[in-house]
Description:
Layout: E1 2-7, E2 16-21, E3 24-28, H1 37-45, E4 56-58, H2 64-67, H3 70-75, E5 81-84, H4 86-114, H5 124-131, E6 134-136, E7 150-155, E8 163-171, E9 174-180, E10 203-207, H6 218-235, E11 238-242, H7 248-261, E12 269-272, H8 275-286, H9 293-298, E13 311-313, H10 317-323, E14 330-334, H11 344-351, E15 358-361, H12 370-375, E16 380-383, E17 386-389, E18 393-396, H13 406-414, E19 423-427, H14 431-443, E20 449-450, E21 457-459
Parallel strand pairs: 3-4, 4-5, 5-6, 9-10, 10-19, 11-14, 11-15, 12-13, 12-14, 15-18, 19-20
Antiparallel strand pairs: 1-2, 1-21, 2-3, 7-8, 8-9, 16-17
Helix pairs in contact: 4-5, 4-8
Amino acid sequence: MKIEFYGAARTVTGSQHLLTFGEYRILLDCGLFQGKRSEAQEFNRTIHWDAASIDAVILSHAHIDHSGNLPTLVKHGFKGSIYATPATRDLCAVMLMDSAMIQMKDAEHLLKHRGEHIQPLYDIDDVADTLNLFDPIPYHRSFSPVPGLSVTFYDAGHLLGSAAVVVEWEEQQQKKKLLFTGDIGRENRPILKDPDTIGDVDFIISESTYGGRLHEIEQDLERNLLSIIHDVIDKHGKLLIPAFSVGRTQELIWYLNNLHNRGLLPAIDVYVDSPLAIKATDVFRMHPECFDSQTRSMLYADEDLFSFPGITYVRDANESKRINTLKRPAIIIAGSGMCESGRILHHLAHSIEKESTSILFLGYNAPHTLGRKIVEGNKEVRIFGNYFTVRADVHELPGLSGHADHAGMIQYLSDRTITSVKEVFLVHGELQAQELLAQSLKDVGFTSISIPERGTVITI
């Protein structure tokens, strides 16, 4: 068995790792790289391997940095099966189509306004071809993507349908196990179940996004969220929340709904301004089997956990523009989470120079993204080719992140016989975060920890 690390190697996005097992090739994830535009274009347009030679894709979950380049792979000749959980397949149906539409509209915009000819990575026909290759597999049911390999999905607790992947094979009459964590969620979070306990394995490919960082506890998160909302009401301004349309938006709405049901949410209009988030929320409603027991029990008293008086789901573009003309305070939740595309850009362009505006980030922003520049305190940022002075208040609530933090990752990775693990490979993280996580893993007894670079090939 060989592993070639390509995407999400010493960086967070673009997850892609190739397993070579005898004559077979299996790709773990096929995500879009997000970051510096020129680097992202080069990475995403280049399929590093012969796509037709790949026998199968094992997809951990639907987030675009894990699934978003699947149509490019198919466009280049991949014809194998894409294995994922049923909820992941349903989320990919809306997310990949949305990705294609955004790319097509961006290409039209650049041609019309700048005279630039740019081909989208893929179009809606490529997405349709991709969806035809999905083979949904439930949690805990083993399957064989190629002869000699057995694969099982375990709940990762990160996103609806997210999976940690265990690959098993036999070599020289010895059984071996590889765990690919995908992205690991957090315990005691709303909506989703806690990550499954998996047990002993020989090798681990682990995410490391929040190495060195700890999340807020839930009580602090609610208190800080309410404080920011009350401040916006006092300023008669707008609270702009760039949020990933799938996962983060639904969790935020769950919190607002819960605060409303407990009589704690002040009277304020809430707009979910994302067609993708609306479609994704419908998918969440379709998969209560992924909910934890607390969320399922809440359905007895509140049949729709993603709706409450004062919330409006905005589909129409003209209605989206109208929000910016409103004089009363409002919360505007819009994609994308890193402010690289989507309707949040229009709201930022309209309101970022106003002192009455607050901007709230709920999770990680990759280097070179607009979200990262705003979080880092840049006083001037570029939106739609124009420069804007940042006068808005900027806040972060990392407690809403769907990733386990540093302590959570140590606990998750240590929840097995540590001496059974021959090597841990850290991916999906910035180098500094990975080094901090690696040191803590050594402190608890892991003996061999690697941080592979892009293109590293290792035989296990």
